[in-house]
Amino acid sequence: MDSIFFLEIVVSVLFMSMVAQTLSKHFKVPIIMFLLLEGILVGPEVLNFIDPSTFGDGLTAIVSLSVAVIVFDGGLHIDVKNIRTIQKTAFKLTTIGVLITFTGATLVTYFILDVDLKLAALFGALVAATGPTVITPLVRNIHVNHKVGKILEIEGVFNDAASVILAAFMFEWIVSQLNGFSAASFIIQRLIIGIVIGLVSGNILKRFLSSGSLVTDQTARFFTLTLVVFSYVLSELLGNESGILAVAVFGIVTGTSNIPHKNALKEFKSDLVMMMLSIIFILLAAMLKFEYIIGIGFKGIIVVLLLIFVVRPLAVFGSTANSRLRTNEKLFVSFIGPRGVVPASIATYFAIKLDAMNILGGQMLVGLVFLTVIITVIMTGTFARRVANLLGVIPMEILIIGGGEVGKILAERFEKRGENVVVVDNSEEKCQRLLKQGIRVVHGDAEDINVLKEAGIEKAKYVVATTDQDNTNLLVSQIAKSKFNLKEDQIVARVNNVENLHAFWDLSIRSMSPQMTTALVLDNMVGKPSMFSMCEVGEEGEILEVRVTNPKVAGKAIKELNLPENSLLLMIRRGEKSYIANGNLVLEYDDLVTVIGEDDAAREVADILYR
Fold this sequence. Notes:
GO terms for molecular function: antiporter activity; potassium ion transmembrane transporter activity. By secondary structure, this protein is of the alpha/beta class. Helix content is 63%, strand content 8%. Helix 4 packs antiparallel against helix 5 (117-126) and helix 12 (290-296) crosses helix 16 (362-391). The N and C termini lie far apart (58 Å).
């Protein structure tokens, strides 16, 4: 290929990437949707501006390098210390979930399309992956709750690796008739190679970055990129198709480690990933031939729809049966199953090899995989935010300053409510205690603006200052107001010394004093025990205000609702009037209901009233 022509293509692809990024931000949908459409538009099937076949074997090298960096970046954003409570769920999704998806996709393809079982199994292996190239930017864009978001990100990173190894096994089964001991050896060997090389690479990087002051951000980025490529190539040389697992493990080891230059690596890799993602998605989409999809026909669409609405939910609910995920969270995870660049690139690679060996089915495989990618990406990108809002998995971002007993209890309660919580504290001991509870923490001085930024104050819905130092609570509250433009009703502070209350009130900071609050509660307990017992719901209880938006509830009397036994409706606010809740009171749309309940009862009532 002429070098100038090659550079023309690269410049064109980068320009299209900028256009796609602009459209993505404007319409608030994943960039991959636009990259996919652009690739098809400039490919041989439409404008014939870019023909990826002219790259020859170079295309495979470009795709391999890009996928390695993309998967490493996905692992880099996963900190195992902060996700201990969801490790088991994520592990089951990447093992049991993959096997259920593989089996379901294979059977659906075999019976509906009436293709060879081995080819159906190869397709089932390829679509077992839920690509991080789509999921990671998606969950960060719509800010789903931390637990669900991290489960989806971990699943995407590891599913790619599991899917590639499984697909490689199926491909070898087709072309070389693997069976018995050789089949088991194939899988185990690649798992061991990928995991070992990933762990060793991660430890090498940790040692290098911690070696001294001579390592700059630039040196760290260059060395990391070199080591990522080296790890991928070495793993592929020792066991083909094990490279993705190696860089996934490498990324997670790095993301979990507390090492210098980590933020510099994340920023650099994010920019690099966006460029590589744009290049490979546009080039792969340009390779698509309409005849591949037309040849599959309407039955192919049925296969994809069954994958989305039957196989994916079975895989999610089957692998999370005993997890702490709520039903609405499981439903959201079930809906988020887009396929990305890995199945598209591997399918293209296998199709070329099958055609070279005169084995039928390569074109059908490419067509079906691309059809799956197109439908799942467009459906997920278009409806993810609406589904998240409908299922209530977009929580508030709450930043708690202080990991003492008050901050800890508050964080646990917010986490149980499903909110996204981050605690900032300068005590390593307190941070470790919170980490063991599965609560995200940032170790550092809350009076440092950079520490607050790292904790996510720029997107926080509320900042709650709970330290035992009034000066710290006051300063953090002022920073939140003046530097990050949080409103008065978004900041709450604890005042340890009653004499300092006026300093907070003068700055219009909502605050409370533990001493004064205790005195008021004790006052209520003396001579008025019934009033206090009504408000005391215990450590596990909640009092919530819920808006009636469920059309099935509006127009019904309270006594007609099947509410949990350990819950109680206290008051109904309708416009400017308030009503004491009684069994005969008929609820109306947009009523504001005060609910009290033990354990999860209040949340269950909220789910009934709010849709």
